[in-house]
Amino acid sequence: MSELTLIIIRIGFLALLWLFVFIVLYSLRSDLFGPKLTPLQRVAVQSQRTRAEAAAQAAPAAAGGDAPTTVTERASAGSASGLARRIVITSGPRTGTEIELPETGLTIGRSSSAGLQIKDDYTSNSHAKIVRWRDEWVVQDLDSTNGTFVEGKRITQSTPVRVGSSVRIGTTTFELRR
To answer: Where is this region: Disordered (predicted)?
Structure first.
């Protein structure tokens, strides 16, 4: 081979190595910090969080001293269909938080676009998803690094979650409730 061919091959190989390095760095950045948000998306996410926090603060204030009674009434209203209506975090950084389960399902992860945002080192950006399938809720692990656990067992495929079953993602454990 001529010297010119060897130089071109070396430069091409060097370019491929640099491309690989940039792809790895981009992947790490997006996994650690989530997707880039435009200013408009950032405002939408902040207003959504503000509304959710205001609703969470208003519910206990409206209930006053009758908070357990209110929860029981809501549970009996949902028991007619037998389908869970909310998620309650039982352990982890956000213990006690209750979130209504939207009919469209709920994405769980570190990303700011997740419906249930969990900020810990063991949770992926898009870690898992809870979706309604027929007459039950199903949890799907979205190829997370540390896995999703239902009743202490790591799941590898879509798994039905019953009311009261514990689901662990990272350091957070939650249950579905009526």
So the answer is: 56-78
